[in-house]
Amino acid sequence: MSVPSLLKVLLVDDEPLARLRMRSLLEGCVDPRAEVLAEAGTASQAQAWLREHRCDLVLLDVQMPGPDGLQLASALRALGQQNGHSPAVVFVTAHAEHALQAFDLEATDYLTKPVRRERLQAALARVAQRLAERAAMQTSAAGQVLLGEEPGGVINVTDRGRLLRVPLAEVLYFKAELKYLTLRTATQSLVMDGSLSDLEPRLGERFLRVHRNALVAKSAVRELERHAPSHVGEDESSDGAEGWAVRIAGVNEWLAVSRRQVAAVREALAGQGS
């Protein structure tokens, strides 16, 4: 995984001397290096600049006239959810009491003044690592299933900084877990970015949607039974409340089956015997 060697930075602080000192500290950082593209004295000035430009990192004071740094970070997070891109945020402030709220806003780090160069360097390294991981996940999501390179195709999965190529023939199922997907083979469970709705059209006829949260390889379906909802991870109000479940070959796990998919699962089982 490549780590960016030069971070593009926007400095946001209402004190010119604080911005000057931060520039000096950044000039001494070498791994990764950082380049200040612009400065802003208020959150409004920063937002105006960010509407026209992009950067990797916003070094952001908390307490400023007008909208404060926390409000700007919240706006940046909302923007990132809309267009898929937002710079990393590192707060730089003399007030440590806002740290918990800062991390709730997904800040990469929180530095207290006076900032030491070694601490700033560590924050930059964390930003570079997070950007590299984000880029790897986006690359994986953009070309998740690469048909034709191997029989049956492969799928790219980023796992703790490694880019793995998993043959689709080895995949037993994909399951949605909160914001991520779990890819299950007979020997490992891998966490990957993406959604089942994006993945399903790329997998073809070899995979079957058994539930809103699961895609299963038809060849991995071994039996269909009625199960108590608690046995398959479903609550009584869920789509699988009738208790249908499939047993997955190789791992002896049960996955919930929604009522509307029971017939399709039966058909897949009948097809294995033909």
Give an overview in words.
A hairpin with a 4-residue loop joins strand 15 and strand 16. It contains seven helices and 16 strands. The chain has two domains: 6-139, Rossmann fold (3-Layer(aba) Sandwich), CATH 3.40.50.2300; 145-273, OB fold (Dihydrolipoamide Acetyltransferase, E2P) (Beta Barrel), CATH 2.40.50. It is of the alpha/beta class and 274 residues long. The longest helix is centred in the middle third of the chain and has 26 residues, at 117-142.
List the helices and strands and how they pair.
Blueprint: E1 6-12, H1 16-27, E2 33-40, H2 43-52, E3 57-60, H3 69-83, E4 88-93, H4 99-104, E5 109-112, H5 117-142, E6 145-146, E7 154-159, E8 162-167, E9 171-177, E10 180-185, E11 189-192, H6 196-203, E12 207-211, E13 214-217, E14 221-226, E15 244-248, E16 253-256, H7 262-273
Parallel strand pairs: 1-2, 1-3, 3-4, 4-5
Antiparallel strand pairs: 6-7, 7-8, 9-10, 9-13, 10-11, 12-13, 14-15, 15-16
Characterize this entry briefly.
The protein has helices at 16-27, 43-52, 69-83, 99-104, 117-142, 196-203, 262-273; strands at residues 6-12, 33-40, 57-60, 88-93, 109-112, 145-146, 154-159, 162-167, 171-177, 180-185, 189-192, 207-211, 214-217, 221-226, 244-248, 253-256. The protein is an alpha/beta fold and 274 residues long. β6 and β7 (154-159) form a beta hairpin.
